[in-house]
Amino acid sequence: MSGHSTYQPQNKFLQWFEKRLPIGGLIHSSFVAYPTPRNLNYLWTFGGILAFMLGVQIVTGIVLAMHYTPHVDLAFRSIESIMRDVNFGWLLRYLHAYGASMFFLAVYIHMFRGIYYGSYKEPREVLWILGVIIYLLMMATGFMGYVLVWGQMSFWAATVITNLFSAIPGVGETLVTWLWGGFAVGNPTLNRFYSLHYLLPFVIAGVVVLHIWALHVAGQNNPTGIEAKSDKDTVPFTPYATVKDGFFLACFCIVYAWFVFYIPGYLLNGDNFIPANPAVTPAEIVPEWYYLPFYAILRSIPDKLMGVIALFSSILVLAFIPWLDTSRVRSARYRPLFKQFFWLWVIACVGLGWLGSKQPEGIYVIMSRVFTVYYFAFFLIIMPLLGIFEKTKPLPNSISESVLGAKA
Amino acid sequence: MMMKRTVLALTIAVAVSALALPATAEEQVAPPRLSWSFAGPFGKYDPAQLQRGFKIYREVCSVCHSIQMLAFRNLADPGGPGFSEAQAAAVASEFKIKDLDDQGNPIERPGRPADTFPPPFANELVAKAANGGTAPPDMSTLAKARTYSRGFPWFILDAFTQYQEQGPDYIAALLKGYEDPPKGFQLPQAGHYNKFFPGHNIAMPPPIQAGQVTFDDGAPQTIDQYSKDMAAFLMWVAEPHLVQRKRIGFQVMIFLIVLAGLMYFTKKKVWSAVH
Questions:
Q1: Which one of A69, B160, B183, B267 is at 20 to 30 Å from A149 when CA atoms are compared?
Q2: How far is CA A177 from the centre of its chain?
Q3: Cα A375–Cα A376–Cα A378 angle in degrees, nearest 5
Q4: d(Cα B21, Cα A367) in Å, to the nearest integer?
Q5: Torsion region of A15: left, alpha or beta (phi above 0 gives left; psi -120 to 50 gives alpha)
Q6: Could you tell me the CA-to-CA distances from B171 to A397, B140, B188 in Å, in that order?
Q7: Per-residue pLDDT tens for B183-229?
Q8: How far apart are CA A193 and CA B64, in angstroms?
C-alpha cells in the first residue's frame, strides 16, 4: 500500500539523526502516514485502548510494587497499607485492580470484533495468533496478580487453579509440587507469582510490538472485509484515526473512572478482604469475572481431566479459527447465517460467564453443558460447514463505494 | 427472521427457567437497605456518627474485636471522625502498648498517635479459647469483607445507581438481627440465632443492649442507632479515604467529560472533509 506522505525532517539535527537511526521515519510511517481504511467504526478504537490499558497497568504496577511485600505474613497488610498510608495509594490500587477488568473488557470487545468481521482470515492469520498469545499471557498475568492480594479468594483461587495441573496423568502431582515450590500453596508460590506478575507484562508488551508490526504489514481489516484498493479507500492514521481513537479512549476512561472512584467495591470479592487462611475454605470459590466462562466450561464436565482439557481447548481453539472458518467472505455483514450463529455464540459466552458465578448444581449444570457444546460447535462444526453451505450477500466493489455509494 | 425469533425464544426460555428455579445454595436473608451519609457521588462520612461509632467500639466491641490496621493518628485524618490531633494523641495515651525498654525488657507504655489499636487477645489461639472456639474477626476490613449477593438483575442496576453500601447494611442488620430460633431450627449449643447471618447460627452473642453506651450529642441510645453508627464507623475503618476518593472522582469526571466533548467536536471537524 502506498503511504500518503513520507517523513522529511526540516531540523538539521533530526536529519543527521535520521541518517543514523531512522526511528522518526518508522514512527511517521506507523502512526502518521499509515493508511487506515476510511470506513472503520468505533469497534476499531479498542486496539488503541488496549495499548493505553497496558501502559496504565505497567505504570501503576511499578509504583505499587514499590510498596508491596510478597510474603505470606505481610502481603495482605502491605496492600492495606497502600490503601491507608501511601499517598494516593488507594487510587493506584483501584486503578490497577479495575485496570485489569477494563483491560479484559476491552480485549473481549476487540476479540468479538475480530471474529464478527473475519479479521483472522488470510493474510492476517499470524496477527490473529499473536493476539491469542497476548490473551493467554493476559490471563496468566491477571490470575497471578489476583493472588498477590493474599486474601481468602486469592489463596483459594491459587489452590484451585494450580490443582488443575494435577489432572495430568503421571506427572500431574509432581508438576503441581514444582509449581507451588512446596507441598501446598505457600510463601514460595507467592514469591514466584510476584516475580512472574512483574515479568509477564513486559513479555506482553513485546508480543504487542509484534502484533502491531504484523498489523502494519497486512493492513487493517474493516467492516466490509474487503481490502483497500486505492488511496480513495484509506485516510492517513494521523489525524483521522488518532482523533477518533482519542475521543473513544476518553469515553472509555469515563467508564473506568466510574468504577475506580464511585463503585470500587463492585467487582471486588468480599472474601478477598479477609486475609488468606489455609484452614478455612470460603463458601464459594469464584474467579474474577473475566475467567467465569472458562470456569463454567471446566465445571460443566464431570471428569476432572476432561474438564481441564476442555478449559484449555476453549482458548486454544481460537488459534485455529483462521483455518476452521472456510468462508471466503470475511465480514459477517455479508454472511447472514454466520451473523446469527455469531450472536448465539456471544449469548453462549455471556451465559457461561453468568453460570460460572453460580454453584454447579441442578439446571445450572445442564445450561453450562448446552452452552459449552455450542461454544465448541461454533468453531468446530458451524465455521467449517458455513463456508460450504452459506449463501453470502454480494460484496461492494470497494471500501469507498460502500461509504459514499455509487458516486465514488 | 425465523432463526432470529427461535434464538430469542430460546434465550428467554432458558433465562426464565433459570430465574424461576429456587436457589439451592445456602439461603441468606437480604438486609434492609438503609440511607447512609456516605452513599452516592457526593457522599461524606458524618463525623458525629463516626465518633459515636468509635465510642461503641471502645466501650463494647473492643473487648473481643481488634482493629489492627487502624492507627490512633487516623482519628484526626481529614474525612474521618474529625478528632483534633491533640484529641487523637489523648485517646492514644489511654491505651497500653507492649514494647521493649532500652535494656530489652518487655514493658507497657502509653500509646502514641503512630501506634495501631492494640488487640484484645495476645494471639489467635487465645482469642479462640476465650470465645468458644471461634476467634472474633479483626474489624479493619470487615465492612468490605461482609456483604451479600444482590442477584440478577439488581447487580446490574447497582453499577448505575452506585449502590455500594451492602457491607454497612449487612452489619447494621446483623447487630439487631438476633431473634428466637423458629420452631424446628436446630441451634447448636453456644450458637445464637441471627436472622441475617448466613445459616443463622452465629457464635457472637447479642453484642449490645439499649442504653449500654451513653451518647453526649443527644442521639437516641437504642440498638437501632447503635447498629447504624457502628456500621458507619466500620465502613470508615475499612475505607478511610472514601471522601477524598469521591471528591477527586467528581473532578476527574468533569475533566473527562469536557475532554471527550472537545475530542468529539475535533473528530467531527477533522472527518468532515472525507465524509
A1: B160
A2: 29
A3: 70
A4: 13
A5: alpha
A6: 65, 14, 23
A7: 999 898 889 999 999 999 999 999 999 999 999 999 999 999 999 99
A8: 35
B195-201: long-range pairs with CB below 8 Å, 24+: B195/B29, B196/B28, B196/B29, B196/B31, B196/B170, B198/A283, B198/B26, B198/B27, B198/B28, B199/B26
- CA–CA distance, A250 with B266 (Å, rounded to integer): 13
Distances, alpha carbon B246 to alpha carbons A102, A232, B26, B40, in Å? 20, 48, 35, 9
B211 Cα to chain A: minimum distance (Å): 32
3-state secondary structure of A113: helix
DSSP single-letter state for residue A117: T
Q: Tell me what percent of the residues of chain A surpass a pLDDT of 90.
A: 93
Mean pLDDT of A49-66: 98
**pTM for this predicted structure:** 0.93
Q: Do B30 and B148 meet the contact criterion of CB atoms below 8 Å apart?
A: yes
Residue B17 with chain A: CB contacts under 8 Å = 363
| pLDDT for A402 | 86
| Whether the Cβ atoms of residue B76 and residue B58 lie closer than 8 Å to each other | no
CB spacing of A261 vs B158 below 8 angstroms: no
The pLDDT score that the predictor gives to residue B190 is 83
Contacts of A257 in chain B (CB under 8 A): 249, 252-253, 256
Q: Counting every residue, how long is chain A?
A: 408
Which grid coordinates belong to B197? 447471618
Cell of A113: 470484533
Average pLDDT, chain B: 90
**For A244, nearest residue in chain B (alpha carbons):** B267
Q: Residue B6 is placed in which grid cell?
A: 427461535
Q: Given pLDDT bands bounded at 50, 70 and 90, which one contains residue B65? A: very high
CB pair distance less than 8 Å for B144 and A257: no
Distance to chain A for B221, nearest Cα, Å: 31
